[in-house]
Amino acid sequence: MNKDTLRMVIGFGIVLVILIVWQMAFRPKPQPAAPTAAPVVADTVVPAPVETAAAEPEPAPDTAAPLPAALRADSAVPARTEVLENDFIRAEFSSIGGGLTSCRLKKYDAELVPEGEMLFPAGLWTGNGALDLSAVPMQVSAGRDSVSFSAGDESLGITRTFRLDGDYTLILETRVTGARGWLVQGGAGMAITEQNAKDDLSHFHFYARGDGKLKRSSARDLGKKPVASGTGTDWVGLKSKYFFIAAFDSGAVYDSSWAFAREDGRIGFGALTRAESNPSAIRLYLGPLDYDRLHSFGRGFENAVSLGWAKPIALGILWLLKFLYRVFGNWGVAIIIFSIIMKAIFFPLTRTQTKQMRQMQLLQPKLTELKAKYKDNPQALNQETMQLYKLYKINPLSGCLPMLVQLPVFWALYSVLRTFIDLRGASFVLWLKDLSQPDALFGHLPFFGNPPIGLLPILMGVSFIAQNMLTSTDKKNWAMTIIFPIFITAIFLNFPSGLQLYWFMYNVLSILESVIGLKGGRKWFKNKTRKEPGLKTAGTN
Fold first, then answer.
1. CA-CA distances (angstroms) from residue 352 to 31, 89, 339, 406?
2. How far apart are the C-alpha atoms of 308 and 303, rounded to whole Å?
3. Bridge partners of 182?
4. SS3 content of the chain, % helix, strand, coil (to 5)
5. Helix, strand or coil for residue 268?
6. Which helix (H) or strand (E) holds 223?
7. 279 preceded by a cis bond (ω within 30 of 0)
8. Integer Cα distance of 477 and 357 in angstroms
9. What is the topology classification, in CATH, of domain 41-45+80-305?
């Protein structure tokens, strides 16, 4: 084994160790069992609203204020469940707390409310602090398209009405008496919807937009320090890998908002709305993390879709994939056609790269001669080598250009496919039931974090090796020919099978291109040797 190969093997080994240590260090803690009762939202710190100059200052409530007599009720009153339903969602509400106990998205078979918990229960803001009403039995008034919950009396009370508004949106109208405002309580957070809880939790983020600026906080950030913002916030929201919850005002702004990390790795949040307009209304979006749908609200919700630094390219890829799906009716076929289109677009660059690599390979005997001749004179060797490249019009750096150009496209494609909700549950062939998940046809390895092992990544690795064997200029460099593709394949094991499918098809097309280009390389070599008899082929004296 030569020194270059040894250094490469050591480098790959170091990178592999770093990956293993990273995976072990940041493996999430086991998820605790879901609580059997709704959490007491008031246990979290609710920041005091930021007062304007004309308003009277109020102390920050570190805990919930005790419930006054007007809001006390018999705790033995049984809960009553009310349902609002359309073609997109089925929302269930409880008369205890007047909040959302279930929100099932029919198309995606996903439940957004954590089991045994409640989203958006009633809550009031008074001069003495926050009043959590999540355990207060309420009077119910149900209509065909709405349901109302009320508690208290004229001295201190609340009435809140939920109505379906379109597909995944609810309108929450609230009227209060004897209070300065009411709370939007999302302390229960969003449920984990995916089988791979670790992957789902890694996408959990809190969003708040105020004064035209969008702030994003991960669960890890919030675990170090909860966030709170003052007046001017016009919407707050949570996102997971595929779903999004947002609470936004109709023309008004929140007086304050806050978010905190829960012990299970999820995120709780809340906001305060003043009762300056009575009744006041907000809208609640509980639906898919779909870029076009979120963009239609005109409030910047689409920024919760993580498309990375190559966002313009990602949007183009997203549009093209959706167009191909409308034409062919299958996401797997759409990805294959997309890979063919990408190969056609990059063909001029990759064709030049292939020709340059073949030319470099054909010049290896001459380069070997030069190395032997000028082994004690590196400067002369470099000059003679550059003269040889110039004579045969070879640019040693030309092989890097196609890779640099394709890098933004690959990153954009990765950003799209890893969170593209339309791939969730999309099947292609017999064993690929979900293109958003890694191919796990052969199960999981019992070490290194239990990565899945499937047919697609194996085929992709084999195609990488075949391509390298066709295009490699140095057949002795087995580390680059074999070890590097294996290393890349190991990284791809946890990638969505949709991305694995794309890269496998792209490799197959690249192999075909290399095979076709091989004859062209030999023809170039024969023509050059006729014009330049000084060029010696391998094995000539």
1. 52, 53, 19, 14
2. 10
3. 124, 273
4. 40, 20, 40
5. strand
6. helix 219-224
7. yes
8. 15
9. Beta-galactosidase; Chain A, domain 5 (2.70.98)
For helices 3-25 and 484-492, give the axis angle rounded to 10 degrees: 10
In DSSP notation, 168-219 reads SEEEEEEEEES-SEEEEEETT-PPP-SS-HHHHHTT-EEEEEETTEEEEEEH
What is the model's pLDDT at position 466?
85
Domain extents in the chain: 41-45+80-305, 313-437+496-531
**Cβ neighbourhood burial of 7 (10 Å; 0-12, 13-18, 19+):** exposed
Residue with tokens 């999430």: 28
- Spans of the chain, pLDDT less than 70: 1-77, 250-252, 275-276, 396-402, 448-449, 471-480, 517-541
Sign of CA dihedral 32, 34, 35, 41: positive
For 262, the token pair is 């829960």
Fill in the amino acid letter for 52. Answer: T
| Amino acid 250: pLDDT | 61
Q: Identity (one letter) of the amino acid at 283?
A: R
Sign of CA dihedral 158, 162, 163, 165: positive
**Residue pointed to by tokens 């990759």:** 350
Which pLDDT does position 524 carry in this prediction? 45
Q: Phi then psi for 185, rounded to 5 degrees?
A: -105, 110
For residue 436, give Cα distances in angstroms to 213, 309, 403, 424.
31, 21, 25, 5
Q: How many CA atoms lie within 13 A of 354 on its CB side?
A: 24
Q: Scan for tokens 């498309």, then name that residue.
A: 307
Residue 402's nearest CA partner among 456, 465, 471, 461 is 471
CA distance 266 to 330: 34
> Which residues does 83 contact at the CB level (< 8 Å), separation at least 6?
90, 91, 92, 93
Written as one letter, the residue type at 451 is P
Q: Where are the alpha helices (DSSP H) in 58-172?
A: none
